[in-house]
Every structure is written in structure tokens, then in C-alpha cells.
Amino acid sequence: xxxxxELIKSDAKSHARRGRLATPHGxxxxxxxxxxGTAATVKAVKPDDLTNIRTQILLANTYHLFxxxxxxxxxxxxxxxxxxxxxxxxxxxSGGFQVFSLGHINQISEEGxxxxxxxxxxxxxxxxxxSMEIQEALGADIIMAFDECTDYPADHAYTREALLRTGRWxxxxxxxxxxxxxxxxxxxxxxxxYPDLRKESAQIITQMDLPGYAIxxxxxxxxxxxxxEILDGCTDLLPENKPRYLMGVGSPDAILEGVARGIDMFDCxxxxxxxxxGSVMTSSGPINIxxxxxxxxxxxxxxxxxxxxxxxxxxxxLRHLCKAGEILSAMLLSIHNIRFxxxxxxxxxxxxEAGDFGDYRREFFAKYYKTIVE
Length: 374
Known about the structure:
Largest sheet: 8 strands, parallel
Low-confidence stretches: none
Oligomer: single chain
Number of helices: 15
Mean pLDDT: 96
Shape: globular
CATH architecture of the largest domain: Alpha-Beta Barrel
CATH topology of the largest domain: TIM Barrel
CATH superfamily of the largest domain: Queuine tRNA-ribosyltransferase-like
Number of domains: 2
């Protein structure tokens, strides 16, 4: 098996779990956060910086790399690991979400999705087989099945139609997936905000003994309370001995709530996107570094953080960079925000091992969000 998962410890008072995911390019300790390198780069962050802040695994995107520079160019370069100079594990999204959210859709059919490129308007067709071909060329350790992610809200009938098509596409992905010796294929649960459809989708995808399973179609515009309610019923539908990946979710609260419900893997563009706008995660809560109150604040960004930014620069300097529009501000704040989420997952793993995840979760919410969580 290319991908192996070991369940190390389960929390006695929640569904939180501590695990270890083995891949061809290294081991990932879970729960884990994956920074997003959509176009074979994490925006404004160099690979050695990612290593220094103890990044375990990155995500890259099939849709974007298919359009530019093209998967054959990446293959010729030796695959993503060589192309982007990253030696650790990589997961590639199938491109399904981006086709539906970015591409101008012409038609969804049993064959796949025809759409127009958001770059130049050229007509394209993405099928389960094409997604597998692209991801094999990219050479990621974990690849995702091509799926249909429904909008929010979507009615019950269409959501069921989409999850059934996703199941049929998964069968085609598995049949087309040839690089089983070096890539692990994950199936994706769909079903929108309907518990009965989530159950049906889980039954379909788990009929195939895959290395891991993802929960898709959440964080697509629904209130977080609705997402958590749906998650409550999702993880128990997936095998205990396989990693569970919640796609596109990565705010601190959602990571903690996801872990409490049995999620092992997360990804999100949030830390770098927020950084580019001056929004910073700190141990005492989020701040906007552009605010005037930091003009003469010569203290570190976060005294509890061990990243390069916090060890070397003041809030006053970082505010100056943001206000001046300097590229360095995006670099330094992105390093910090990603490290914040990586450190959060490190502390979560330690809390689960120590048997006090519940206490850690309550204390984090009280300090970061100034709220009490039962």
C-alpha cells in the first residue's frame, strides 16, 4: 500500500484522534494542516521557509496546473516535487471544485465537465480519466478523485444526482489510476447539507477499499453551525483505520471543531490570503496589523510564536510594510499565519496524546475567540 495510516490514540471524550500517515515522501503526523500551494507555490513563501516552520505536507491543484504551465511540462521537469523544490509529501486536489467555481461551465454530463478556461476562455473538458492523467503527471503522493461539488444551497434531488455521479466517477478514477505504487487515491463524500445523502455517499465510496477518504462540499457558503452539524454525522460513516480529510477548511475554530469530530487532515488558503490583507492570527486572537494602534508597538507580532517573523520583527515594522505596500509584508505575515496553524495542530496532537484535548479546546476558544465552549 502506497499510503498507510496508523491510529495512535483516540480521545475518550470526543472523536478526536492522533494518527500517523505514511506517504512515499515522508510521514505526516495527524491531525495535520496542509498549506495550499495552488499553482505549485504557496503564495509569498519559499520552500525553505515552509521547511523551517515545520510544514509536513502541501496541497497543489490539478485544475490550475493543467491550465498553466500544463501537466506535461511538470512531468518533463520530474514531477511537482522537483519542479517546485519540495521534498515532502504533496496532495493534489482533482480540479473538480475549481471547474465548478472558476470555469465557465457549458455542460455537466456523465462523461465529465466541459467548461471554458478562466485564463483565456478556451474550451476544455475535464473527465475522471483526464484528472487521473494530470495527477499522475504531477506526481503527488495523494491524489483526489474527480467529483461534483454542489452549490449551497442545492435541492435534495440535484444533490443526490450529483453524489451518485460522483460515485460513478470514482469508479472510473480507480480504473484509470495506474500509478498505484507511488500514489494513493482518496474518494470524496458529497451529499450537501442532507444527512441522508451524506450516508448514501459514504456507503458508495467506502465500498472501494481506498487509502483514505475526504469530506467535500462543506465550507461552500453555509453557516459554520450547519457545517458542524453535518460533520457530526459524517466521520462515523467513514472507516476508522483510514485518514479523514475535510477539504477546504482551515480556520482555527474549524480545525478544533473538525478534530473534535474525528477529522485528521485540513487545508485552506486562509492563512496566506489573510496575510496579504494584514490580518494576523495571534495567540490572544486575530488582529489587523494595519490598525493605527500598532504604529509605535515595538513588541513582537506574537510573543508565543517561534516563527522567523516573530523572532525578528516588531508590530510597528510589519505595519509599516503593509501600509507601504511592500512585498515583504505578505512574505513575513504568511510565514507567521501558516506557522500559527501548524503550531495549533502540533499542540492538538500533544493534547490528544496527554488525554486533555477537551481542556485545550476550551482554553483556546476562551483566549482566541473570547468565548466559552462546552
